[in-house]
Amino acid sequence: MTDPKEILRQHLSQFVSLTEEQLEYVFSHFTLVSLKKGQMLLSEGDLVNEEYFVLDGCLKAFYLNDMMKMFILQFAMPNWWVSDYNALYSHQKATVNIDCITNATVLTITNENREKICNEIHEVEHFFRWRTNKGYVAVQKRLLSFMNNDVKFRYEELLSMYPQLYNLVPKHLIAAYLGVSRETLSRLYQP
């Protein structure tokens, strides 16, 4: 894996310009965490005070209903952010679970530290605002796709946007992301 600070630098530099001193300061507010495949990062009922920037590996954010059916809200691959944002911003307990599909390395930042550096460095505030807006747009597009497209279309769309998912994520998890059973996905998609 490339140096974590360099990965964060490259990610931020796509959207904002920071001096070396600013980057050092921003990076000092993150904590590096290594995770094992299957390890829970966040469980329903936990207090949430952090968000996670994926350096390598793949995580999933998911919800289990009362019947223990899994609904995957997000796959988080390198350079993606993940948390239970409702719980993080509203200071409530988590309703979303996050675990590792593969071994993973993440940078964590607390809500307080994110707000601190956003207040101190305008470019960082701009980055987080831009990222939040981009996330909102992605969720809106996903909901519209659920309302307007069949499963086969959504599957093909997902794999055309993120081809690495096909080899990285087990098919039953892709099915849970699409809101169908593994069997339904197998019937609909014949490679």
Automatic annotation (TrEMBL):
<dbReference type="Pfam" id="PF00027">
    <property type="entry name" value="cNMP_binding"/>
</dbReference>
<dbReference type="InterPro" id="IPR000595">
    <property type="entry name" value="cNMP-bd_dom"/>
</dbReference>
<feature type="domain" description="Cyclic nucleotide-binding">
    <location>
        <begin position="14"/>
        <end position="117"/>
    </location>
</feature>
<dbReference type="InterPro" id="IPR014710">
    <property type="entry name" value="RmlC-like_jellyroll"/>
</dbReference>
<protein>
    <submittedName>
        <fullName>Crp/Fnr family transcriptional regulator</fullName>
    </submittedName>
</protein>
<dbReference type="InterPro" id="IPR018490">
    <property type="entry name" value="cNMP-bd_dom_sf"/>
</dbReference>
